[in-house]
Amino acid sequence: MDERRLVVTIGRQYGSGGAEIGAKLAKDLGLDVYDKNILRMNSNQSGIKESYFHLADERAGSKLLYKIVAGLTPEMKAPSFGSDLITADNLFRFQSEVIRRLAQAQNCVIIGRCADYVLDGMDGLVKVFLYADMDARIRRITEKGYFAPQDVKKNIKKIDRERREYHRYYTGKDWESLENYDLMLNTARLGAEGTVLAIKRYLEVRGFGDLVK
């Protein structure tokens, strides 16, 4: 009998600690975690420069145009500046194919990238959404020093908006809707350790106790 597959997808508000929590969860479960490294895998597979994927990362495709490799061949080539202009939708298709292949090949944790939608209907899929109070997110991002203190809240709202638009554009669904997820957790209430523990307890209830240490 084949081993039961487990893929945990994590959607997250900016500043909620989703990347840290996803990485810790994966480590505790002995799984690989995929986040921005998916973009590098896309680049290697399609021949599209990694920088183009980063520019399109979690932003609505309707707003972006990219010059990409002619024919989308797997060989690494310089982007074409000819007539073969393709929207970021094509980058999303490459990314989605990588996500599907990862899910077929191994148990793993995937952060963002609309993975909850791309893998919808897969047996063993657990869809998590992490959020936090605005004050907690402001404190977290301020501590990281990504932006000037006076610009932190503005940038949190901006990045959330980009993720919301990206998700709606590619899925037709509301990014923060309860209906999209199996579990939604407020990381400001639980902290990183508590959030990981809550997800692990949920996995036990779902029948993945053999993977939870």
3D architecture notes:
- Helix 1 runs parallel beside helix 8 (187-205) and helix 2 (37-46) crosses helix 4 (88-105).
- The strands form 2 sheets. A 5-stranded parallel β-sheet has the order 2-5-1-6-7, with helices on both faces. A two-stranded antiparallel sheet has the order 3-4.
- It has a single domain, classed as Rossmann fold.
- Residues 60-86 have low confidence and may be disordered.
- It is 47% helix and 14% strand.
- The protein has helices at residues 18-29, 37-46, 50-56, 88-105, 115-118, 134-144, 152-171, 187-205, and strands spanning 7-12, 32-34, 65-67, 85-87, 108-111, 125-131, 183-186.
- With 213 residues, it is α/β, with parallel strands linked by helices.
The CATH architecture would be 3-Layer(aba) Sandwich
What is the CA-atom radius of gyration, in angstroms? 18 Å
> Could you tell me how far the N terminus lies from the C terminus, measured between alpha carbons in angstroms?
23 Å
Mean pLDDT: 81
Computed structural class: alpha/beta
CATH topology: Rossmann fold
**Count of helix runs:** 8
The H/E string reads EHEHHEEHEHEHHEH
CATH homology superfamily name: P-loop containing nucleotide triphosphate hydrolases
The low-confidence parts are 60-86
Number of strands: 7
> Major sheet: size, sense and barrel closure?
5 strands, parallel
Secondary-structure blueprint of this entry?
Blueprint: E1 7-12, H1 18-29, E2 32-34, H2 37-46, H3 50-56, E3 65-67, E4 85-87, H4 88-105, E5 108-111, H5 115-118, E6 125-131, H6 134-144, H7 152-171, E7 183-186, H8 187-205
